[in-house]
Amino acid sequence: MTFLGKESLSAMPITQDAVKTLSAQLYDWSLRRVPDDTKDALRRARATETHEGAQRVLEIMLGSALRAEQTDRFVCSDAGVPVFRVTIGAQARWEGDIKAAITEGFSELVGRIQPPLLKHVTNPLTNERGYQGKDMPLVTWEVESGADWIEIACQPKALGSGRWAQAETFSFPSLADIEAYVMRAVMTAGSQHCPPVIIGVGIGGSFDVAAKIASKATYRAIGSTNPEPVLAAMEERLLRAVNATGFGPMGTGGDTTALAVHVDYSAGHGYTPVAVCFNCWINRRTRARIHADGSVERME
Amino acid sequence: MNLPEYRRIRMPMTREDARSLRAGDMILLDGEITITAGLPTHHRILACADEGRDPPIDIRKGSLLHLGSYSQDTADGGLEVLYMNPTTSTRFNPIMPRLIRHFGLTAVGGKGGLDAACREAMQEVGCVYLSFLGGGAPLHSGAITGVKAVAWNDLVAHYRLVRLSVNGLGPVTVGIDAHGNSLFETLSAQAQDRMPEILAQLDRDRAS
Questions:
Q1: Any signal peptide, and if so, which residues (chain B) (predicted)?
Q2: Does position A4 have pLDDT exceeding 90, yes or no?
Q3: In CATH, what number does B7-182 get?
Q4: How large is the ipTM?
Q5: Do A207 and A169 meet the contact criterion of CB atoms below 8 Å apart?
């Protein structure tokens, strides 16, 4: 955090209120709209599907996405738990408690959102459900060099696909070992994670870092190319491999089990955690930046 | 949407209709369905079966679908359901065979399928599994024409046992039929069979 000198007091810092309002909006927006890249990918899948039932299921998916937009309703009744990734520019200036802002924003949203949310926030020790809980919303904080904005991304996470994420730690695995593990995770999820899914894979780092980069990889736009050539090639062949399983849309058969596989890595020790996570076909995801002048830029 | 005509099935489904369906068929549902997305709810229904009591909403020879809904009281003393969507049925695998047999269910459903033990119980009594679109809340909710009953209001909304009248709910895919055919088991076995070749292809792609 940059402390303000006298000369800069006139410049408007990013406020607690702006973070509160935007984080709540991003969650609300994410529930009512399937991202454009995802709809495009579903349309491409529908055009290439050879399985008649799968073509119909993809058509119905696109119909559901359209209806949600037209009627401003939730795409899924499971609004998930609020999950945010906040990237703070290393040169960003803000005032107030931006961590509390996200908790307050969600709390206020719960009181006013229409239609109301089901209670999904669960105490894992008692399985009691409500709208609030320890460490909720779940926020990953990151710092970005050379930026003066704060970016907030929201990806509500529900049971349907969240249930099937897994991680395993290997020692000096080959790429073949890593890819075989991804395929085991795909087999475990089978028909159950509301396919076609977006698959995030995180390789290396430490246990927590592998999971974090796997999750972060799912935020990448479908169709974007991985800047790391080794991973770009891995993503392509894994996508073909996943779609060769035949589970298909909603797991009732077809060529389209995944829309994308996104892989990222961190250097680590020779022990190499590999994390695999899934986003269901509606791929809820919104993102916006609050710039240094206080303006808000909606990015997706 | 430009969709083909689907066969429409009256709910509660008759045993005859259940037996007439085949895995992979896509149908629309009219009539009355009973739904819940709650594990505690399943435990309560199981307790009813164990103690020879009827659950507060009769499901005998009817449907029990794994759909969660947001229900609330209306100002005029009625009930309304604001939205509805399926949940993962495999969570209920250990409980469903008993419920299918005890209540003689004709239709179960949700998303993701049920296991072999459930499929055997379904074949025994003449029951089908209906796969609903996950992320289909706008479509499913639009098919609701009335709320007939809501029970166990002490539970969170999506866990309650709810009876709804629906018109044109779906299309839903028959995932498991009453003749022992399960798309889920077939596809899983097929993927397992394909896996050596899939891994070999990954090796070839990596080497090229």
A1: none
A2: no
A3: 3.20.130.10
A4: 0.93
A5: yes
